[in-house]
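Preliminary data (for renewal application), zinc ion complex.
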Amino acid sequence: MTSGRSLLLIADIGGYTEYMGSHRMSLAHAEVNTARLLEKVIDAAPRFELIEIEGDAAFLALPADTMDSDATVGLAFEAAMAMHRAFHIERQYVATNLCPCRTCTQATNLKLKFVAHVGDVATQTIRQRRKLVGIDVIHVHRMLKNPVEVPEYLLLSEELYRTASTSIPGPTHEVSQDLEGIGPVRAYFVDVADLPSAAAPLPDPSLLERVRRTFGVAGSGLPYMLGLRRRRRTAAAF
Ligand SMILES: [Zn+2]
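Predicted structure:
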């Protein structure tokens, strides 16, 4: 087991459960769409290591031992902005594919939010899979349950926020949280809509690409529609 300081980032897709219902095709398409969105989100932050997919969220980490403080916060924002943009480009493809199911037509309701923290983590490798452990890993996960009311945001732990002297690229708002097993903490969020990247327009999906995506989602949903595969369990490790 090794240990060190790491920047911890969770990107969490929200918005499906409210309207998905229990129709088999809708469930299958929700799974396909979420997987595709998560892939794009993860690809958009190549400096981070993907530690785990946790239901509709991706848990990523980046060693921060040798990084100066401003760089750490800067990287959290840079990754969040790139991931948010990748998410919305892909979400537009999902929403404009030609599948009429509820899941696909209402994909515009999907949102992406982030929580980030910096702390000491230990690394365990079990059967070639790297796993991060420690109180700070629990801390970042518990931050997902928070009182922030804007739909898309990056929430920084106080530890991470305090390391920044200059590099926060938008207005920050303070919130209080009582983290189970950790206690009361302060955290700071930036509304993604206030970040410079939110102003850049998204490209329009071409018809050809929309048709291609429609076949993609229809094909992937087929085994579910035929009842050949069971829906995967929803991970809830934390
Ligand atoms: Zn669909």
